[in-house]
Design brief:
Length: 331
């Protein structure tokens, strides 16, 4: 009998709204709200990888940053070990940092050019484990550098001396030196060449097995997400359109938006590529400041009707299975 997996992180009705200034706003008029994340709920299980995909502006990064306290949460709950971290104080967040770490999209922008690689990787350790000897810090840094594919002779170099792939390995080493339980990767391979992308993905999978990591992996590339994820969450304009296990989502997509995203993946076989049915989305992504009424995807949806403008579809189970959820009244 397979043991039941434990939920590591549970998100309930999460909303992340930003007040923004708009043109021609009079002084007594209220600022408009940008709904970056709008009523999102999901769970992630220990030792698994949740892939989060969607177009730019769909709320992926805003969601990720809110989970680690970098974006203020407007409402909702983020449950970690039975506690709602959405209401944590600065002191409580500091204690939690060692358990939840973040890998940023641009490796060079996230590394301080004034520090050596050894200092960058050691910084989280010196903050959370102060008072240790320099020999201890160096030993820990060299150990994690070896695990991410960096050599000892690199420890005194500066970020500008490295390639993009190596710089991202530094960022991963810095995130893992505290041995966190959850690693949030915000498009960690989008700025890298295809061959380097594969190396970083394989590295993350190896580290996940070794450290028992749980990963939230954000990406545009659905092929990459398919390779690394156990479950996949498709977002559009701050909302979840579809959530399912990897096999179910890629082989039996239910939402029109998911179908369009999958149809956009190029096939290496020219015969297969030519035989594919094109799924085109008309128009541009609407503004999150003025989202469409009802279903936010209806303005680009090929099967939308007048009813879609009135009803906000809930994320519900489909006939594919209880683990496959979709937000569409037509499915």
């Amino acid at each position: 009998m397979t043991p039941e997996k434990k939920v590591l992180l549970e998100v309930k009705n999460l909303k992340v709204y930003f007040k923004v200034k708009t043109k021609n706003r009079l002084p007594w008029q209220a600022k408009k709200k940008l709904k970056a994340v709008d009523d999102v709920s999901f769970s992630i299980y220990e030792g698994e990888t949740l892939g989060v995909v969607g177009e730019s502006g769909c709320g992926k990064t805003s969601l990720a940053r809110s989970l680690i306290g970098l974006n203020p949460i407007s409402s909702g709950e983020v449950i970690w070990k039975g506690k709602n971290i959405a209401k944590f104080s600065s002191k409580e967040w500091f204690l939690l940092r060692s358990e939840i770490q973040y890998v940023f999209q641009d490796p060079f922008a996230s590394l301080d050019p004034r520090y050596t690689v050894g200092e960058i990787i050691a910084e989280p350790l010196t903050v959370h484990e102060p008072g240790k000897s320099q020999a201890y810090y160096r030993e820990q840094v060299l150990t994690i550098m070896q695990k991410v594919g960096l050599t000892e002779k690199m420890i005194n170099r500066y970020p500008h001396e490295f390639s993009g792939g190596q710089a991202q390995r530094i960022g991963i080493a810095r995130a893992l030196i505290l041995r966190p339980k959850l690693l949030i990767c915000d498009e960690p391979v989008s700025a890298l060449d295809v061959s380097i992308q594969a190396q970083v993905i394989n590295l993350l999978q190896d580290l996940q097995k070794e450290f028992g990591l749980t990963i939230i992996f954000i990406a545009h590339n659905l092929s990459v997400v398919k390779h690394i994820s156990n479950h996949v969450m498709v977002m559009y304009l701050g909302k979840i359109m579809e959530y399912a296990d990897k096999y179910s989502l890629y082989h039996m997509p239910q939402h029109p938006y998911t179908q369009a995203l999958l149809a956009s993946i190029p096939e290496p076989d020219p015969v297969v590529e030519k035989s594919k049915k094109a799924v085109l989305l008309e128009g541009d992504l609407p503004s999150p400041i003025n989202p469409p009424t009802g279903c936010v995807f209806r303005t680009r949806c090929p099967i939308a009707s007048a009813e879609c403008a009135e009803i906000i579809p809930a994320l519900e189970n489909t006939n594919v299975g209880a683990a496959h959820q979709v937000a569409c009244i037509k499915v």
